[in-house]
Write a sequence for this structure.
């Protein structure tokens, strides 16, 4: 199983960036997909989740600014991040878990730094 994030980097406040997570080794369409982040000195937190059905959930701090999407034909999950703020600076992780399973799969993480 592999989850490989890409698309991070340095972006100015108010800017946008799109993260992608390319996966392999499991039946993608049967898994819920999430993006988590860990900011310096803080606990890891759930940012966005997209269910097998396509339904989505977002942390209050990113609602209206971030959009999670999945491409089942490409085994990829994306996170479009707009109107970025300095507090969005973190390492972002992709996570996949099947419903009713206790454990899932993590990507290695990608750094997003929001700074002028």
């Amino acid at each position: 199983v592999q989850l490989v994030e890409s698309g991070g980097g340095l972006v100015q406040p108010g800017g946008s960036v799109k993260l992608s997570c390319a996966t392999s080794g499991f039946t993608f369409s049967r898994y819920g997909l999430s993006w988590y982040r860990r900011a310096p000195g803080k606990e890891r937190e759930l940012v966005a989740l997209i269910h097998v059905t396509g339904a989505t959930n977002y942390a209050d701090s990113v609602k209206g600014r971030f959009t999670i999407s999945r491409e089942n034909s490409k085994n990829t999950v994306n996170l479009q991040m707009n109107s970025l703020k300095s507090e969005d600076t973190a390492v972002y992780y992709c996570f996949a878990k099947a419903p009713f399973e206790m454990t899932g799969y993590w990507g290695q993480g990608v750094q997003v730094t929001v700074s002028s």
Remarks:
- The radius of gyration is 13 Å.
- The chain has a mean pLDDT of 97.
